[in-house]
Amino acid sequence: MSNKRYSLIIAPSDGSKSYQLQVDRRTLVVLIAALAVLLMGFAFMIVTYGGLMHRVRNWQSLQGRVAELEARESHYQGLELEVVELREMDRRVRSLIGLPEAPSVTAEATDAGVNGAEGLPAGAPRLVLSEAIMPDEAQLKKIEKDLDKYHEKWRWPAEGFVSSEFGEERESGGIHSGLDIAAPRNTLIEAPRGGTVSAAGWNDTYGWVVVLDHGDGLNSIYCHNTKLVVQEGDKVSLGDPIAFLGNTGISTAPHLHFEIRKDGYAIDPVYLLSPERNL
Fold first, then answer.
1. Alpha carbon distance 203, 224 (integer Å)
2. I want to staple 109 with a disulfide (CB 3.0 to 4.6 A). Which of 53, 231, 244, 248 is the partner?
3. Domain residue extents for the chain
4. CA-angle at 113, arms to 112 and 119, nearest 5°
5. Distance CA 271, CA 261 (A)
6. Which fold has domain 137-272?
7. What distance in Å separates the CA atoms of residue 168 and residue 199, rounded to the nearest whole number?
């Protein structure tokens, strides 16, 4: 079969010299195929670009939605903290004028799917915390002497404000054996010092609880959490997350009940905590 040739003539409209380009059949087929590939590639790029721009617009819309939700969450946390402060003010006013405290309630640990003791997940450990022993003057002096070797102060386990101090008398009787730090629910609780998780589970009074063993008879206790992120036997270092602050157990508002015990005796956490804090 002969290889036909084709001529492409370019004739200007002003009647000037024409130009003629001759190509054989094989070259023409190659040129047409190349043009088709270029057109298909161009069409693919247009479709891809359109889809990419659509995804970019969706991503920008999602980013805006995320920013809006974060702003709402911050607003709600601020409102919750205001409620906590009002409840604490109510408690102090009641104490000053001799009225009984507002009744405590067994709060729901929604993040853990717990409603009191009956809704515990299968296999969840039940903790029995021994009652804190308040040292007498001689015992306290001995404990403080033992603690003087801790030159490096502990960090505060959570951000918030102190709603109840160590040693306060309770309307229901007894002495407050820890430090209450009020803050919005789900505030992160971090280890104030390295140690080992000696217990982690549910207590009917204190809700979700973590106990850290720091050695030398020194333990710290974290109560009323909404969720635990450690389990018994875990090793933790300074600043490691251990739980999220909550309102579980017998509690009137979200807060962390923080105790430090030395050889079973409750001591004021402020004795070991750093004075520098954002509370």
1. 9
2. 248
3. 1-105, 137-272
4. 120
5. 12
6. Glucose Permease (Domain IIA) (2.70.70)
7. 26
DSSP secondary structure letters along 24-83: EHHHHHHHHHHHHHHHHHHHHHHHHHHHHHHHHHHHHHHHHHHHHHHHHHHHHHHHHHHH
For 196, the token pair is 């080992």
**DSSP string for 192-260:** SS-EEEEEEEEETTTEEEEEEE-STTEEEEEEEESEE---TT-EE-TT-EEEE-B--EEESSSEEEEEE
pLDDT digits (tens, 9 = 90+) for 196-221: 999 999 998 899 999 999 998 999 99
Nearest CA among 238, 237, 243 for reference residue 211: 243
Model pLDDT for residues 152-192, shown as the tens digit of each residue:
789 999 998 898 899 888 766 678 899 999 999 999 999 99
**233, 22, 44, 42: which is closest to 125 by C-alpha?**
233
